[in-house]
Design a protein that fits this description.
This protein has helices spanning about 25-35, 50-60, 90-100, 125-130, 140, 165-175, 195-200, 235-245, 265-270, 315-325, 345-355, 385-395, 415-420; strands at about 1-5, 15, 40-45, 65, 70-75, 85, 110, 135-140, 145-150, 160, 185, 205-210, 215, 225-230, 250-260, 275-285, 290-295, 305, 330, 360, 365-370, 375-380, 400, 425-430. The model has no long low-confidence stretch (mean pLDDT about 100). Helices cover about 30% and strands about 25% of the residues. It is an alpha/beta fold. The strands form six sheets. It has a four-stranded mixed sheet. The chain has a four-stranded mixed sheet with strand order 2-15-17-16. The structure holds shikimate-3-phosphate.
Length: about 425
């Protein structure tokens, strides 16, 4: 196990053009290429553990992946039964989307993951998929991996989801593409919509109306190949947005980030807190893409209780900004945090308390009394976003974070970028 020590930072001014490529879009680009009838070309694919696992899985499923180190060229002749156990590693997105993709494929498939993923709930996808005829099983009556899937015929459906989850929506859309008729999926709050954008770009017939009902027509044949350059990941970029907002006098430009509204709500929350943030749109193909400029300004407390799915992954880093703000910030309606890579309500609360911050815990969130962050010893609980959030907090006061290997699941060059701001050392734990 490795631990990282970061020292207090001086003010910085940076342009970052190598924020990690978007994880959600990278997973999808690999998986969706399997639905096309030609060579999909994917530039700037995220080479991190989670998405490399997905790439390995599509190879096991028969895809041919040519990789010149920069661009991936992916082709496939349909999904083939695999001799291998399909290992999603730490990735909930990988496992849940593969459930949807494999439910209609010919053959028997076994999906597994690391000890954290094997404890996360899968019934949110296995139950609706089973209800349309998918044959999926796993521990605890299909809730926990390893999961076994025997692909087969799927019935058309109309499903209303009780949780705003892009993973559930995407799994059901992938299943709908091979169902025996038109399908409808309704959500109560729009979750990230990369699946719909990308599949539509490939020629699938998918429409979402103003009541958030997505209608999906079954495929008549293969889709057009994808030609995509994956934008930078706003969830990764956000760590450096928080860094610039809490280190007095700092300024950062985050280049080439997806500005998809379902992904940048945390930047708006930080702006509401008083941070000086501007967005510059540069292009718009499958996604709007541009630069985000963040300059230091003193922060005030806010309440966050709406459009939670638009900033769910950024809440741990936002909690660090809240700890540095004047007043009591509140996060509510965020129960989904409990089933992420760690129980992020518990890990944010215990981490901030270890840094001397007063925090009240709720079942669905927390209240943070802004104050003076102090150097603490933080356990990441194997959760990349917890590890990175507390290293960013360390820019104020120094910090020691245990178990930092998990950062490689989403942001392999995080330390290289952090070193441009502060002294950092990573060492083997005693
Ligand atoms: C993701 C959706 C979100 C998010 C996760 C990535 C995706 O999960 O937290 O990091 O790529 O679809 P939920 O769909 O469970 O909210």
């Amino acid at each position: 196990m490795k631990r990282a020590l970061v020292q207090k930072a001086k003010c910085f001014s940076l342009r970052i053009d190598d924020i990690a490529p978007d994880k959600s879009i990278s997973h999808r680009s690999a998986m969706f290429s399997m639905l096309a009838d030609g060579v999909s070309v994917v530039e700037n694919f995220l080479r991190a553990e989670d998405t490399l696992n997905t790439l390995q899985i599509i190879r096991h499923l028969g895809a041919k992946v040519e990789d010149d180190g920069k661009v991936l060229r992916i082709s496939s002749e349909g999904i083939k039964e695999s001799f291998e156990v399909l290992d999603c590693g730490n990735s909930g997105t990988g496992m849940r989307l593969f459930c949807g993709l494999l439910s209609s494929a010919q053959g028997h498939f076994v999906l597994t993951g690391d000890k954290y993923l094997r404890s996360r709930p899968m019934k949110r996808v296995t139950q609706p998929l089973r209800s349309i005829g998918a044959k999926i099983d796993g521990r605890n009556d299909g809730d926990l991996a390893p999961l076994c899937i025997r692909g087969g015929e799927l019935k058309a459906f109309s499903y209303e989801s009780q949780i705003a989850s892009a993973q559930v929506k995407s799994a059901l859309i992938l299943a709908a593409l091979h169902a025996d008729g038109e399908c409808r999926y309704k959500e109560n709050e729009l979750s990230r919509d990369h699946t719909e954008r990308m599949l539509k770009g490939m020629g699938a017939q998918i429409e979402t109306d103003e009541n958030l009902v997505t209608t999906i027509q079954p495929l008549q044949g293969p889709l057009k190949p994808l030609h995509i350059r994956v934008p930078a990941d706003p969830s990764s970029a956000f760590f450096f947005a928080v860094a610039a907002s809490i280190v007095e006098g700092s300024d950062v430009v985050l280049e080439g980030v997806t500005l998809n509204p379902t992904r940048i709500e945390a930047f708006y929350a930080l702006k509401r807190m008083g941070a000086d943030i501007t967005f510059e749109l540069k292009e718009d193909k499958y996604e709007p893409i541009g630069d985000i400029h963040v300059r230091f300004a003193s922060l005030e407390a806010i309440e966050v209780s709406e459009r939670i799915s638009w900033l769910i992954d950024e809440l741990p880093a936002l909690a660090v900004a809240m700890a540095c703000a004047k007043g009591r910030s509140v996060v509510k309606n965020a129960k989904e945090l409990r089933v992420k890579e760690s129980d992020r309500i518990a890990t944010v609360v215990s981490g901030l308390r270890a840094c001397g911050i007063e925090v009240e815990e709720f079942e669905d969130g927390y209240a943070i009394q802004g104050g003076e962050l102090q150097k603490g010893k933080i356990a990441s609980h194997g959760d990349h976003r917890i590890a990175m959030s507390f290293l960013i907090a360390g820019l104020k006061c120094g910090m020691e974070v245990e178990d930092v290997e998990c950062i490689d699941t989403s942001f392999p060059n995080f330390f290289t970028l952090l070193e441009q701001i502060a002294q950092v050392s990573v060492e083997e734990s005693a």
